[in-house]
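Hi R.,

Here's the input for the uridine-5'-diphosphate complex you asked about:
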Amino acid sequence: MDKMLSLIVPVYNEEEVLQISFEKMDAEMKKIGYPYEIIYVNDGSRDGSMSILRKIANKNPQVKVRSFSRNFGHQTAVTCGMDAAKGDALIIIDVDLQDPPEVIEDMVKAWENGADIAYGKRLKRKGETIFKKFTAFCYYRMLKAMSANAIPLDTGDFRLIDRKVADIFLKMREHNRFLRGMSGWMGFEAVPVEYVRNERYAGKTKYTLKKMLRLAMDGIIGFSDRPLTLCGGFGALTLGIGGLGLITLIILACCAVSFPAWLWAIDGMVILQAMTFLFLGIQGSYMNRMYDELKARPLYIVAEDLNLD
Ligand code: UDP
Ligand code: MG
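And here is the predicted structure with uridine-5'-diphosphate in place:
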């Protein structure tokens, strides 16, 4: 059993929970039995988090800490942890004990049984506002409808990923990161591990409404071209309506049926407006492609080779 596990924990102003969180996670990792490292990424905390991390790291050689110069955001902090991780499987977990450390064992079991990704699926969320529960419920469903690659419902970043998946993550250097979407995009054998999401152990959420909206936008813009194609579709539809209107008016005029002359003007406006939408949609498709090229994701991902070196 010489495989190793890396636990990746992003930290932003978490002095109230850090110590107890470390104790619980460390005990859990010991129990699981593989050699392990715990990588804390301090995302520019302005409270006592870093001095607590210093103390923990001094006493525990399995604890590694990387500290940012300022707040770069949760998704970037997790990415940094992945960059630093040496393990054969990486586990991403929040520091606030909302993701119960006991679930890690189930994820490791799924991994031992061949899963490349074992993602935490929330059966219930405790201690979160109705607003958060409702917006999250709607958002995940909307995202699923909008994006071509499966992003599992009610799933956060709490997950285990195999080394080969992590290596592909490391190749994807896009700046606006939405890790759960990237994970869905990659494919691989992803297995859900169900759990009940706890209340935050202490402290307040570090995801402000602004940060949450930004993450939500990153999810949609990064993983769906629907907003851009929608415009073209709308343009085509309106052009159809304007065209039908024009044909009707011409027929009426030929049959010498009288109608108000401003109908010509209205129909002309509808057609012009439709053309604008249509051209915006066409421009959007070019933008989509440019964005796609800029992201420079790998063209394809190999899961297995047979008889190939
Ligand atoms: N976090 C971070 N940088 C940020 C915001 C949050 O590293 O800018 C960390 C935070 O310390 C925690 C995790 O990301 O470990 C999730 O944040 P939080 O629990 O506040 O979000 P919520 O669970 O309320 O969505
Ligand atoms: Mg939390």
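One thing worth noting: The radius of gyration is 25 Å.

Cheers,
M.
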